[in-house]
Amino acid sequence: MVPTIVVEVMPKAELLDPQGKAVAGALARLGRSQITSVRVGKRFEIEVEGPADDAILAEVAALADEVLANLVIEDVISVHFAGADGFGLDADNDFETGNVTSDTSFDAAQGDVSSETEQQLEDEISEGLA
């Protein structure tokens, strides 16, 4: 298996995050008032040749600072090997370890959200209306 390094970048805390604000607004309209803030970032998955060691991780971390992130408005928050935190290698493994779940019991407290409502939220977010 080819080692994969995950780089996660988020907008700086002091900056307005319009995409996160749109998602938070849409969630509030869906009755998810317990969610008070959302921030949206980006994730890069980089496959590398050779050994998965600290040297290649440091090289990719430097690359993240130099090329992948706009350091004026973003912070690199994580550079790690995929799967090191249980995420990223394959969905089946993530479900088996409990890192990802299909359990939607948290919806019961707020009432079930219909698939139509979920589709409306997805449409609003993709159109920038949320």
From TrEMBL:
EC number: 6.3.5.3
Feature: compositional bias, Acidic residues: 119-130
Reactions this protein catalyses: N(2)-formyl-N(1)-(5-phospho-beta-D-ribosyl)glycinamide + L-glutamine + ATP + H2O = 2-formamido-N(1)-(5-O-phospho-beta-D-ribosyl)acetamidine + L-glutamate + ADP + phosphate + H(+)
Any GO MF annotation of the entry: ATP binding
Biological-process GO terms, alphabetical: 'de novo' IMP biosynthetic process
GO CC entries: cytoplasm
Pathway the protein acts in: Purine metabolism; IMP biosynthesis via de novo pathway; 5-amino-1-(5-phospho-D-ribosyl)imidazole from N(2)-formyl-N(1)-(5-phospho-D-ribosyl)glycinamide: step 1/2
Protein localization: Cytoplasm
Keywords attached to this entry: ATP-binding, Cytoplasm, Ligase, Nucleotide-binding, Purine biosynthesis
Polar residues: compositionally biased ranges: 96-118
Pfam families: PurS
Domain of life of the native organism: Bacteria
Keyword presence, Cytoplasm: yes
HAMAP family the record matches: PurS
Annotated function: Part of the phosphoribosylformylglycinamidine synthase complex involved in the purines biosynthetic pathway. Catalyzes the ATP-dependent conversion of formylglycinamide ribonucleotide (FGAR) and glutamine to yield formylglycinamidine ribonucleotide (FGAM) and glutamate. The FGAM synthase complex is composed of three subunits. PurQ produces an ammonia molecule by converting glutamine to glutamate. PurL transfers the ammonia molecule to FGAR to form FGAM in an ATP-dependent manner.
Name this protein carries in UniProt: Phosphoribosylformylglycinamidine synthase subunit PurS
Organism: Subtercola lobariae
Taxonomic lineage from the root: Bacteria, Bacillati, Actinomycetota, Actinomycetes, Micrococcales
